[in-house]
Amino acid sequence: MSVTKHRDKDIGFVEIDNPPVNAIGQAVRQGLLDAVRWAEQERLTRVILTGHGRAFAAGADAREFDGAPIEPHLPDVLNAIETSDVPWVAAINGVALGGGAEIAMACRMRIIAPGAQIGLPEVTLGVIPGAGGTVRLPRLVGLSDALEIITTGKPLVAADALRTGLVHAVEDDPVDAALAIPGETLACIVPTRELPAPKTDISLIAAAREKVAAKSRGQVAALRAIDVIEHGLDKPFGQALSMERAVFLELRSGEQARALRHVFFAERAAKAPDWLRSDPAEIARVAVVGGGTMGAGIAYALSNAGLTVTLVETDAEGAARATDNVARIIETSLGRGLIDRAGADDRRRRIGVTDDYSAAGGARLAIEAAFESMDVKRAVFARLSEALPSDAILATNTSYLDIDEIAASLPDPTRVLGLHFFAPAHIMKLLEIVRGAKTSDAALATGFALAKRLRKVPVLAGVCDGFIGNRILSRYREAADTLLIDGSTPSAVDAAMVEFGYAMGPYEAQDLSGLEIAHANRRRQDATRDPQRRYVPIADRLVALGRLGKKTGAGWYRYSDTGTRIEDPIVTDIVLAEARSAGVSRTVFSAEDIRDRLVLAMINEACDILHEGIAQSAADIDLVTVFGYGFPRWRGGLLHHADTLGAAEIVRRLGALSLEDPVAWKISPVLLECANDNLELAKWTRAPR
Ligand code: T1G
C-alpha cells in the first residue's frame, strides 16, 4: 500500500495509506511524487493531503535505514510538493512525526485536528531531521521553538502547534476546513522555503547547546542538530538542505542510530514467545495483595488500563496506608497532567482497598506484592488459593525469591507465575514474566496479555536468583565493591559509570533505593554462596551502622540537609580497613578500567543467563537493561553494546581479568562460542524449546 488519490471537481485528495502508521517507505514517497505530477497534469487548484487511519504519517520507514537510501529521496519529494504550482494543504488527522511533519511543512498550509500531534522525534532514533526539518521549522516557528522541538524530539499537541505557528489552524475536521479555504487565501500563503530564516542568535544557540549537553551524556544527535540549524540559518535554502542531508546520512549509519533503532524495534517485538499457543484468561478484575509502594503502583497501573482492582491489605491500618499510597499516586498523576479530574475519579472508583481477602473473590488474577519473605508469600498464596476461583492465576511480584518454592506450597502450582514490576510500577515499562517449572502456558499467556494491556515491555525470564535484571545488577554491584577494596572509591566508580551514560552510578543508586534490600538478599544467599568467590562486606558494615542510604542521611555517601551527596571519610576508613583485613594492596583504577570491569562483568553474567535459558535472547536482555536498569538506550542495551566490542575482544579482556580472579571472571560458554564462531551475541540461540 502507499498513496491513493482522486479528484472532486478541481480539488485533489491524496491519502497516505501504509498501515499501521503510514511509515514513509519508498512506495509512499513514489506515490506522493506521482501525485504532484498528477495534480499538475489535471490542472487542479489544490491538493488536500491526509493519512489513512490513526496517523497522518509516522515518519520515514526506519527499517530502510540499515540499507542505502532508496529513490525517490524524501527531500526531493518535498521540494516537488513545495514548488508545485498546485498548492498542497496538509489535513493532519493523527500523528505527523519526523518525515510526516516534514511533509506537512512542505505543504502550503497545515490544518490539524484537536487530538493530533506533530513533531520531529528524530534525535530519539539517533539522527536529525533529514528532509528539511532543520531548515523549514525555524522559518515557521522561529529559532527558539525550533531548537526546543528538534533537540527534545517531543511532539506538540495541536494547541501548541498553533501557538508556535507550526500549523495555521486547529479544526475538528481538517479536510472540510481545507476545502473551505478561499482560493485567494491559499494563493497568499508563501511557500515555506520562501519565508525568511530567523536571524542567528548566538546566546540562544549556546543556551540550547548547554541544555542538551547537560543531559545528553555522550549522545550526539541533538548536538549535531543544533550545529545544522545554526549553520543553515545564513545559507541559501538549497545549501542548507544539502548540509542537513549529509549530516542525517552520516548519523543514520552511525552506532548510536543503529543502537536506538535496535531498541525501538526490539521493544515492539517484545511479546509472547512463538511456542506459546495458549489463550490468555479474560481478566476484568485483579486482586493485588500488599498496598505498599509497589502494590499501590501496580494497582494504579492496572486501573490505568481500565481494570478493576481489589487491593488487599493485612488489617485496617494497612488498608488505610494503602489508601493513602494510591491517593498519592493519583494526585501526582493529576498534578503532572497525566490524567484529568475525571480520570482521577475513574482510578479511585476502580481501586477498592480492603483487609478482607474474600472481597477479592471475583478476581481471575491476583498479584502478590507483599513483603519479600518466603513465609509471608506462602501465607498470602494460601489465602489467595482459598479466596479466589480455582482457575484464577496467582502471580508474585517478588524480585528475587524462588517462585517454584511458592508454587510448591499450593495444590495447583500451574497457576503460579512471576510478574516482576519495577518501581515505580505505574511508570517503569519493563515487566519480567517469570515462568516457574510448573507454570501453565495459560498462566504465561495471561501474563503477556496483561503486559500488552498495561503497555509494558514484557520479557520472559526463567527462575534463578534475581531472574534476569537483578542477577545482572548483583554482578554489577559485586564488581564495583571489588574495585573499592582493590583501590577505587564510590565517587570514582559512580563518575565513571555516569560518563558511560548511566543517569547515576551504582553507589548513588543504592543510596536512593536503600541498602537494606540487597543486604537482605546477601543474607539469604549466605547459605549457598560459593566459598571460593571473593565476598566484599563493606555494604554489610554500612547497614550495621544504620547507614541505609539517603533516607537515613547516610549510606555510601553522607547527605547534607539539602540532599547534597558528600564523600564520607567513614566509608573510606571502612574500605581501607576491609582492604587491610583482606590483605589487598590497593592500586589506582582509571575511569576506563572501572567502566571496562563493570560492563564486562554484566556482559559475562548476561551470557550465562542466556546459556542457562533464563533469558530467551540477547535482545530480551537489552530490553531488561534499558527499560529496567537505566543502561544507556543509545548504546542499544547491554548485549547490543557487547556486539560493538565483539565476543573475541570481550573474551580477550576477560581472559586477562581471570588471571587476577579465575572465579569471578570465569568466561561464559556463550562468549567462548561466539568468539570461536565469530558470531554476534544478537544471533546466538539455544536449541528450540
Ligand atoms: N518506521 C518503521 N516502522 C514503524 C515506524 C517507523 N517510523 N513507526 C512505527 N512503526 C511500526 C512499529 O514498529 C510497529 O510495527 C507498528 O508500526 C506500530 O507501531 C526523514 C529520518 C507512530 C507514535 O520516530 O513513535 O522520519 O510491531 O507499536 O504505539 O527526517 O510508532 O506492528 O510490526 O509504536 O500506536 C521518525 C516512530 C522516523 C516515530 C505509534 N518517526 N514511531 O505508536 O504503535 S525518522 C518516529 C512511533 C524520520 C525524517 C526522519 C510510534 C507511533 P509492528 P507502535 P503506537
Any overview of this molecule?
This is Enoyl-CoA hydratase/isomerase family protein. It comes from Thalassococcus arenae. Its main location: other. Residues 286-461 form the 3-hydroxyacyl-CoA dehydrogenase NAD binding domain. Pfam families: 3HCDH (PF00725), 3HCDH_N (PF02737), ECH_1 (PF00378). By secondary structure, the protein is α/β, with parallel strands linked by helices. It folds into 3 domains: 3-248, 2-enoyl-CoA Hydratase, Chain A, domain 1 (Alpha-Beta Complex); 285-461, NAD(P)-binding Rossmann-like Domain (Rossmann fold), CATH 3.40.50.720; 469-614 and 646-683, Orthogonal Bundle (N-(1-d-carboxylethyl)-l-norvaline Dehydrogenase, domain 2), CATH 1.10.1040. It is built from 29 helices and 20 strands. The strands form 4 sheets. It has an 8-stranded mixed sheet, with helices on both faces. The chain has a 6-stranded mixed sheet with strand order 1-2-3-5-7-10, sandwiched between helices. α17 links the parallel β15 (393-396) and β16 (416-420). 48% of the residues are buried. Bound molecules: (2S,3S)-3-hydroxy-2-methylbutanoyl-COA (T1G). (2S,3S)-3-hydroxy-2-methylbutanoyl-COA is lined by residues 20-21, 23, 55, 58-63, 74, 95, 97-99, 102, 121-122, 125, 127, 129-131, 133, 265, 268.
